[in-house]
Specification:
2 strands, mainly alpha
C-alpha cells in the first residue's frame, strides 16, 4: 500500500476492515488445495467465498473503479494482460530459485 496514491490507500484500508481474518483465509486456501471441488481447477482466481472469480466487467472512471474494488466476484482486467502474467511468473521463478 506504500506506493498507492492517497485516495487508493484510504480505499485499501477500508477494504481491509471488511476482509476475512488470516485464520479464515488459511482455512480457505487449505480447502482449495485439498478438496475434490477444486481438483481439476487450474489457472483461476478464487475469492474468500471459494467462488471462481471473473474478469472485471466495469468500465473506466472513478465510480466504476470503486465498485470494482468492492466486488469480490471480479478481478481487474490487467490481470489478464499476458505481459503482466509473464512478468509475475518470471518474478516468481526468480524468487523461488534455490
Amino acid at each position: 500500500m506504500g506506493k498507492f496514491k492517497s485516495m487508493w490507500k484510504i480505499a485499501a484500508r477500508v477494504q481491509n476492515i471488511f476482509s476475512s481474518s488470516p485464520e479464515t483465509m488459511a482455512d480457505t486456501y487449505f480447502h482449495i488445495c485439498t478438496s475434490e471441488e477444486f481438483l481439476d481447477v487450474t489457472g483461476k482466481l478464487i475469492n474468500d467465498k471459494r467462488e471462481i472469480m471473473k474478469s472485471s466487467h466495469y468500465t473506466s472512471g472513478i465510480l466504476q473503479e470503486v465498485k470494482q474494488l468492492f466486488d469480490q466476484g471480479v478481478y481487474p482486467k490487467y490481470a489478464d494482460n499476458i505481459e503482466n502474467i509473464e512478468r509475475v511468473w518470471n518474478l516468481a521463478v526468480t524468487l523461488t530459485k534455490i
